[in-house]
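INFO  loader      accepted 1 record
INFO  loader      residues=61
INFO  predictor   begin
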Amino acid sequence: MATRSGSGRGSASTATKNVPGNQTPNTRDINESDIARLKVDQLRDRLRRRGITGTADSSTP
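INFO  predictor   done
INFO  writer      dumping tokens
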């Protein structure tokens, strides 16, 4: 007898798979795979260098 997964979605779901490459249209200069590998502090540093504020951790004074 076959068993079903608890989610009912089966094994064909792609929503949880990490697909390599750029998945956002019209953003050829952005490599989403590289961004996904960044540590939080590295990502915050890159954002600060681009002038984006409000990236501080909530536990930082």
